[in-house]
Task: structure prediction
Amino acid sequence: MKLLVISSYTDTWNSVRPEAEMIIGLKHAGVDVTLMTQGDAEYVPRFRDQGVEVIDFHPRKKFSWSAIERIRAELKRGRYDVLYLFNNKAITSGLLAAVGLPVKVVNYRGQTGNIYRHDPASYLTHLNPRVDGIIGVANAVRDDLRPRVFLPEERVITVYKGHDLAWYENTQPADLTQEFGIPAEAVKVICVANARPRKGMPLLIEAFGQLQSAQEVHLILVGGGMDAPEFQQLVSTSPASQRIHVAGFRKDVPQLVSACDISVLPSLKREGLPKTVIEAMAYGVAPIVSDTGGSAELVEPDVSGIVVEPGKAEQLTAAMQRLVDDADSRQKMGAAARVRLGELFTVDRAVADTHAFFIRLTQS
Result:
Protein backbone atom coordinates (compact mmCIF):
# COMPACT_ATOMS: atom_id res chain seq x y z
CA MET A 1 0.00 0.00 0.00
CA LYS A 2 1.24 3.49 -0.88
CA LEU A 3 0.21 6.31 1.46
CA LEU A 4 0.63 10.07 1.06
CA VAL A 5 0.18 12.05 4.28
CA ILE A 6 -0.14 15.84 4.38
CA SER A 7 0.20 17.36 7.84
CA SER A 8 2.06 20.01 9.82
CA TYR A 9 4.62 19.15 12.50
CA THR A 10 5.82 22.64 13.46
CA ASP A 11 4.21 22.49 16.93
CA THR A 12 6.18 21.32 19.98
CA TRP A 13 7.67 17.82 20.00
CA ASN A 14 5.22 16.60 22.67
CA SER A 15 2.23 17.93 20.73
CA VAL A 16 3.02 16.25 17.41
CA ARG A 17 4.58 13.03 18.73
CA PRO A 18 1.42 10.84 18.94
CA GLU A 19 0.49 11.55 15.32
CA ALA A 20 4.09 11.42 14.11
CA GLU A 21 4.82 8.09 15.78
CA MET A 22 1.63 6.64 14.30
CA ILE A 23 2.90 7.61 10.83
CA ILE A 24 6.24 5.98 11.60
CA GLY A 25 4.39 2.92 12.92
CA LEU A 26 2.56 2.58 9.60
CA LYS A 27 5.93 2.58 7.86
CA HIS A 28 7.14 -0.21 10.17
CA ALA A 29 3.90 -2.11 9.44
CA GLY A 30 4.87 -2.29 5.77
CA VAL A 31 3.06 0.76 4.38
CA ASP A 32 5.05 2.76 1.82
CA VAL A 33 4.68 6.20 3.43
CA THR A 34 5.46 9.59 1.90
CA LEU A 35 4.91 12.70 3.99
CA MET A 36 4.34 16.27 2.85
CA THR A 37 5.25 18.66 5.66
CA GLN A 38 7.45 21.65 6.42
CA GLY A 39 11.06 20.59 5.90
CA ASP A 40 12.29 22.56 8.92
CA ALA A 41 9.89 20.88 11.36
CA GLU A 42 11.69 19.42 14.37
CA TYR A 43 10.36 15.91 13.73
CA VAL A 44 11.59 15.67 10.13
CA PRO A 45 15.01 14.10 10.95
CA ARG A 46 13.29 11.32 12.90
CA PHE A 47 10.85 10.69 10.04
CA ARG A 48 13.72 10.32 7.62
CA ASP A 49 15.76 8.19 10.01
CA GLN A 50 12.80 5.79 10.25
CA GLY A 51 12.49 5.48 6.48
CA VAL A 52 9.61 7.88 5.83
CA GLU A 53 10.13 9.89 2.64
CA VAL A 54 9.60 13.58 3.43
CA ILE A 55 8.66 16.21 0.83
CA ASP A 56 9.28 19.76 2.03
CA PHE A 57 5.84 21.16 1.30
CA HIS A 58 2.67 22.13 3.14
CA PRO A 59 -0.17 24.43 1.96
CA ARG A 60 0.19 27.93 3.38
CA LYS A 61 -3.50 28.77 3.24
CA LYS A 62 -6.84 26.99 2.99
CA PHE A 63 -7.25 27.56 -0.74
CA SER A 64 -4.30 27.82 -3.11
CA TRP A 65 -4.16 26.79 -6.76
CA SER A 66 -0.41 26.32 -6.53
CA ALA A 67 -0.86 23.96 -3.56
CA ILE A 68 -3.57 22.03 -5.38
CA GLU A 69 -1.33 21.64 -8.43
CA ARG A 70 1.64 20.59 -6.29
CA ILE A 71 -0.35 17.88 -4.48
CA ARG A 72 -2.00 16.68 -7.70
CA ALA A 73 1.37 16.32 -9.39
CA GLU A 74 2.61 14.18 -6.48
CA LEU A 75 -0.52 12.03 -6.51
CA LYS A 76 0.00 11.33 -10.20
CA ARG A 77 3.71 10.69 -9.80
CA GLY A 78 3.41 8.36 -6.81
CA ARG A 79 0.22 6.52 -7.79
CA TYR A 80 -0.86 6.42 -4.16
CA ASP A 81 -3.58 4.19 -2.77
CA VAL A 82 -4.54 6.51 0.11
CA LEU A 83 -4.23 10.25 0.72
CA TYR A 84 -4.50 11.10 4.44
CA LEU A 85 -5.18 14.78 5.23
CA PHE A 86 -4.78 16.10 8.77
CA ASN A 87 -5.72 19.79 8.86
CA ASN A 88 -8.00 22.22 7.03
CA LYS A 89 -5.27 23.59 4.78
CA ALA A 90 -4.30 20.09 3.73
CA ILE A 91 -7.91 18.94 3.44
CA THR A 92 -9.21 21.73 1.19
CA SER A 93 -6.24 21.56 -1.19
CA GLY A 94 -5.90 17.77 -1.06
CA LEU A 95 -9.55 17.09 -1.88
CA LEU A 96 -9.46 19.31 -4.95
CA ALA A 97 -6.13 17.84 -6.02
CA ALA A 98 -7.59 14.32 -5.90
CA VAL A 99 -10.57 15.01 -8.18
CA GLY A 100 -10.67 12.43 -10.96
CA LEU A 101 -7.83 10.35 -9.53
CA PRO A 102 -8.24 6.80 -8.16
CA VAL A 103 -6.71 7.53 -4.74
CA LYS A 104 -8.87 7.03 -1.61
CA VAL A 105 -9.03 10.25 0.42
CA VAL A 106 -9.24 10.13 4.22
CA ASN A 107 -9.73 13.18 6.42
CA TYR A 108 -8.72 13.47 10.06
CA ARG A 109 -11.09 15.15 12.51
CA GLY A 110 -9.88 16.23 15.93
CA GLN A 111 -12.92 17.82 17.59
CA THR A 112 -16.70 17.92 17.66
CA GLY A 113 -18.90 20.62 16.13
CA ASN A 114 -18.70 23.20 13.33
CA ILE A 115 -19.71 20.87 10.48
CA TYR A 116 -23.15 21.72 9.11
CA ARG A 117 -24.98 20.91 5.88
CA HIS A 118 -26.22 24.50 5.63
CA ASP A 119 -22.66 25.87 5.79
CA PRO A 120 -20.96 26.15 2.38
CA ALA A 121 -17.52 26.01 4.00
CA SER A 122 -18.20 22.47 5.25
CA TYR A 123 -18.37 21.29 1.63
CA LEU A 124 -14.71 22.20 1.26
CA THR A 125 -13.80 19.72 3.99
CA HIS A 126 -15.77 16.83 5.49
CA LEU A 127 -18.93 17.20 3.37
CA ASN A 128 -16.97 17.21 0.13
CA PRO A 129 -18.11 14.34 -2.14
CA ARG A 130 -14.46 13.45 -2.78
CA VAL A 131 -14.05 12.26 0.83
CA ASP A 132 -13.89 8.45 1.08
CA GLY A 133 -13.45 8.16 4.84
CA ILE A 134 -12.98 10.14 8.05
CA ILE A 135 -10.98 9.18 11.12
CA GLY A 136 -12.14 10.91 14.29
CA VAL A 137 -9.98 11.15 17.38
CA ALA A 138 -12.76 10.04 19.74
CA ASN A 139 -16.15 8.33 19.67
CA ALA A 140 -17.76 11.69 20.42
CA VAL A 141 -16.21 13.09 17.24
CA ARG A 142 -17.30 10.06 15.23
CA ASP A 143 -20.85 10.20 16.56
CA ASP A 144 -21.07 13.95 15.91
CA LEU A 145 -19.97 13.51 12.29
CA ARG A 146 -21.94 10.45 11.21
CA PRO A 147 -25.36 12.13 10.89
CA ARG A 148 -23.84 15.19 9.19
CA VAL A 149 -21.65 13.72 6.46
CA PHE A 150 -22.61 11.87 3.28
CA LEU A 151 -20.81 8.63 4.06
CA PRO A 152 -21.84 5.18 5.30
CA GLU A 153 -21.35 4.86 9.06
CA GLU A 154 -18.53 2.33 8.65
CA ARG A 155 -16.50 4.95 6.80
CA VAL A 156 -16.48 7.33 9.78
CA ILE A 157 -14.49 5.69 12.55
CA THR A 158 -12.58 6.36 15.75
CA VAL A 159 -8.85 5.95 16.15
CA TYR A 160 -7.55 7.19 19.49
CA LYS A 161 -4.19 8.92 19.31
CA GLY A 162 -1.62 6.60 20.79
CA HIS A 163 0.88 7.31 23.54
CA ASP A 164 3.80 5.56 25.17
CA LEU A 165 4.37 5.99 28.92
CA ALA A 166 8.11 5.89 28.28
CA TRP A 167 7.81 9.31 26.62
CA TYR A 168 6.99 10.84 29.98
CA GLU A 169 9.43 9.07 32.29
CA ASN A 170 12.29 11.57 32.30
CA THR A 171 10.30 14.74 32.89
CA GLN A 172 11.70 16.87 35.71
CA PRO A 173 8.78 18.42 37.66
CA ALA A 174 8.85 22.20 37.89
CA ASP A 175 9.73 23.86 41.17
CA LEU A 176 6.41 25.51 41.96
CA THR A 177 7.65 26.88 45.26
CA GLN A 178 10.47 28.79 43.64
CA GLU A 179 8.44 30.15 40.72
CA PHE A 180 5.03 30.77 42.28
CA GLY A 181 5.70 30.66 46.01
CA ILE A 182 3.40 27.69 46.47
CA PRO A 183 4.21 25.77 49.69
CA ALA A 184 5.50 22.26 49.03
CA GLU A 185 2.78 20.74 51.23
CA ALA A 186 -0.08 22.55 49.43
CA VAL A 187 -2.43 20.71 47.08
CA LYS A 188 -1.71 21.90 43.57
CA VAL A 189 -4.44 22.03 40.90
CA ILE A 190 -3.58 22.79 37.28
CA CYS A 191 -5.64 23.70 34.23
CA VAL A 192 -3.98 23.82 30.81
CA ALA A 193 -6.26 25.48 28.26
CA ASN A 194 -6.31 28.62 26.16
CA ALA A 195 -8.64 31.27 27.53
CA ARG A 196 -11.39 30.79 24.96
CA PRO A 197 -15.10 30.85 25.87
CA ARG A 198 -15.62 27.14 25.15
CA LYS A 199 -12.86 26.12 27.55
CA GLY A 200 -14.82 27.22 30.60
CA MET A 201 -12.05 29.07 32.42
CA PRO A 202 -14.38 31.58 34.15
CA LEU A 203 -16.38 28.61 35.43
CA LEU A 204 -13.25 27.05 36.90
CA ILE A 205 -12.22 30.30 38.58
CA GLU A 206 -15.71 30.57 40.07
CA ALA A 207 -15.69 26.94 41.22
CA PHE A 208 -12.21 27.21 42.73
CA GLY A 209 -13.27 30.29 44.69
CA GLN A 210 -15.96 28.19 46.41
CA LEU A 211 -13.57 25.57 47.79
CA GLN A 212 -13.59 25.24 51.56
CA SER A 213 -10.75 23.11 52.91
CA ALA A 214 -8.38 22.85 55.83
CA GLN A 215 -5.74 22.07 53.21
CA GLU A 216 -4.02 24.96 51.45
CA VAL A 217 -4.94 24.67 47.77
CA HIS A 218 -3.44 26.53 44.81
CA LEU A 219 -4.60 26.75 41.18
CA ILE A 220 -2.20 27.20 38.27
CA LEU A 221 -3.65 28.40 34.96
CA VAL A 222 -1.60 27.69 31.84
CA GLY A 223 -2.49 28.77 28.30
CA GLY A 224 -2.75 31.59 25.81
CA GLY A 225 -5.05 34.59 26.08
CA MET A 226 -4.71 35.01 29.82
CA ASP A 227 -3.19 38.48 29.58
CA ALA A 228 -6.56 39.92 28.48
CA PRO A 229 -7.84 42.55 30.97
CA GLU A 230 -11.18 40.80 31.44
CA PHE A 231 -9.45 37.54 32.31
CA GLN A 232 -7.11 39.25 34.75
CA GLN A 233 -10.11 40.87 36.40
CA LEU A 234 -11.81 37.49 36.85
CA VAL A 235 -8.76 36.26 38.72
CA SER A 236 -8.21 39.39 40.78
CA THR A 237 -11.82 39.52 41.98
CA SER A 238 -11.95 35.85 43.01
CA PRO A 239 -12.09 35.23 46.77
CA ALA A 240 -9.16 32.85 46.16
CA SER A 241 -7.15 35.32 44.05
CA GLN A 242 -4.04 34.99 46.24
CA ARG A 243 -3.95 31.26 45.48
CA ILE A 244 -4.53 31.51 41.71
CA HIS A 245 -1.38 31.72 39.61
CA VAL A 246 -1.64 32.76 35.96
CA ALA A 247 1.29 31.23 34.13
CA GLY A 248 0.02 32.07 30.63
CA PHE A 249 1.48 30.43 27.55
CA ARG A 250 4.31 28.04 28.43
CA LYS A 251 6.55 25.62 26.59
CA ASP A 252 7.28 23.60 29.76
CA VAL A 253 3.73 22.31 30.24
CA PRO A 254 4.82 18.71 31.01
CA GLN A 255 7.08 19.95 33.81
CA LEU A 256 4.25 22.00 35.30
CA VAL A 257 1.64 19.24 35.04
CA SER A 258 3.90 16.60 36.55
CA ALA A 259 4.46 18.83 39.59
CA CYS A 260 0.73 19.01 40.41
CA ASP A 261 -1.77 16.79 42.23
CA ILE A 262 -4.99 17.42 40.29
CA SER A 263 -5.68 18.38 36.67
CA VAL A 264 -8.94 20.07 35.64
CA LEU A 265 -10.34 20.66 32.15
CA PRO A 266 -13.73 22.45 32.50
CA SER A 267 -14.60 22.66 28.77
CA LEU A 268 -18.14 23.64 27.86
CA LYS A 269 -18.19 22.16 24.33
CA ARG A 270 -16.22 21.03 21.25
CA GLU A 271 -13.44 18.89 22.64
CA GLY A 272 -11.57 16.10 20.86
CA LEU A 273 -9.15 13.98 22.87
CA PRO A 274 -7.45 16.65 25.00
CA LYS A 275 -3.68 16.45 25.25
CA THR A 276 -3.70 18.16 28.63
CA VAL A 277 -5.81 15.33 30.12
CA ILE A 278 -3.58 12.70 28.51
CA GLU A 279 -0.44 14.32 29.91
CA ALA A 280 -1.97 14.44 33.38
CA MET A 281 -2.82 10.74 33.15
CA ALA A 282 0.71 9.92 31.98
CA TYR A 283 2.14 11.60 35.07
CA GLY A 284 -0.33 9.98 37.46
CA VAL A 285 -2.12 13.28 38.14
CA ALA A 286 -5.80 12.74 38.95
CA PRO A 287 -7.96 14.26 36.16
CA ILE A 288 -11.28 16.07 36.45
CA VAL A 289 -13.01 16.56 33.09
CA SER A 290 -16.35 17.78 31.83
CA ASP A 291 -18.48 15.42 29.77
CA THR A 292 -17.85 17.05 26.41
CA GLY A 293 -16.17 15.65 23.32
CA GLY A 294 -13.75 12.82 24.00
CA SER A 295 -12.68 14.01 27.45
CA ALA A 296 -14.95 11.58 29.30
CA GLU A 297 -13.74 8.68 27.10
CA LEU A 298 -10.26 9.05 28.51
CA VAL A 299 -11.21 8.25 32.09
CA GLU A 300 -13.27 5.61 33.85
CA PRO A 301 -15.54 7.68 36.12
CA ASP A 302 -14.62 7.54 39.82
CA VAL A 303 -11.84 5.06 39.08
CA SER A 304 -9.29 6.93 36.99
CA GLY A 305 -10.84 10.39 37.18
CA ILE A 306 -13.98 12.39 37.81
CA VAL A 307 -16.47 13.45 35.14
CA VAL A 308 -18.77 16.43 35.67
CA GLU A 309 -21.53 18.00 33.60
CA PRO A 310 -20.38 20.90 31.40
CA GLY A 311 -21.20 24.32 32.82
CA LYS A 312 -21.93 23.13 36.37
CA ALA A 313 -19.74 25.13 38.73
CA GLU A 314 -21.10 23.35 41.81
CA GLN A 315 -20.12 19.94 40.38
CA LEU A 316 -16.65 21.24 39.57
CA THR A 317 -16.25 22.53 43.11
CA ALA A 318 -17.44 19.23 44.57
CA ALA A 319 -15.04 17.22 42.40
CA MET A 320 -12.07 19.36 43.39
CA GLN A 321 -13.16 19.30 47.03
CA ARG A 322 -13.30 15.53 46.99
CA LEU A 323 -9.77 15.13 45.67
CA VAL A 324 -8.32 17.95 47.74
CA ASP A 325 -9.65 16.46 50.98
CA ASP A 326 -8.76 12.84 50.20
CA ALA A 327 -5.12 12.36 49.31
CA ASP A 328 -5.55 8.60 49.08
CA SER A 329 -8.33 8.92 46.48
CA ARG A 330 -6.44 11.34 44.28
CA GLN A 331 -3.32 9.20 44.39
CA LYS A 332 -5.28 6.06 43.51
CA MET A 333 -7.14 7.83 40.70
CA GLY A 334 -3.90 9.24 39.34
CA ALA A 335 -2.27 5.81 39.38
CA ALA A 336 -5.31 4.22 37.71
CA ALA A 337 -5.33 6.94 35.05
CA ARG A 338 -1.71 6.17 34.19
CA VAL A 339 -2.48 2.45 33.89
CA ARG A 340 -5.53 3.15 31.71
CA LEU A 341 -3.51 5.35 29.36
CA GLY A 342 -0.77 2.74 29.07
CA GLU A 343 -3.19 -0.09 28.34
CA LEU A 344 -5.84 1.47 26.07
CA PHE A 345 -4.37 4.49 24.31
CA THR A 346 -1.24 3.08 22.68
CA VAL A 347 0.65 3.82 19.48
CA ASP A 348 0.45 0.18 18.42
CA ARG A 349 -3.33 0.24 18.64
CA ALA A 350 -3.55 3.50 16.68
CA VAL A 351 -1.33 2.04 13.96
CA ALA A 352 -3.31 -1.21 13.74
CA ASP A 353 -6.70 0.53 13.62
CA THR A 354 -5.57 3.06 11.00
CA HIS A 355 -3.91 0.41 8.83
CA ALA A 356 -7.00 -1.82 8.97
CA PHE A 357 -9.24 1.08 7.92
CA PHE A 358 -7.02 1.88 4.95
CA ILE A 359 -7.09 -1.76 3.86
CA ARG A 360 -10.89 -1.86 4.04
CA LEU A 361 -11.17 1.33 1.99
CA THR A 362 -8.79 0.21 -0.74
CA GLN A 363 -10.49 -3.16 -1.04
CA SER A 364 -14.03 -1.75 -1.24
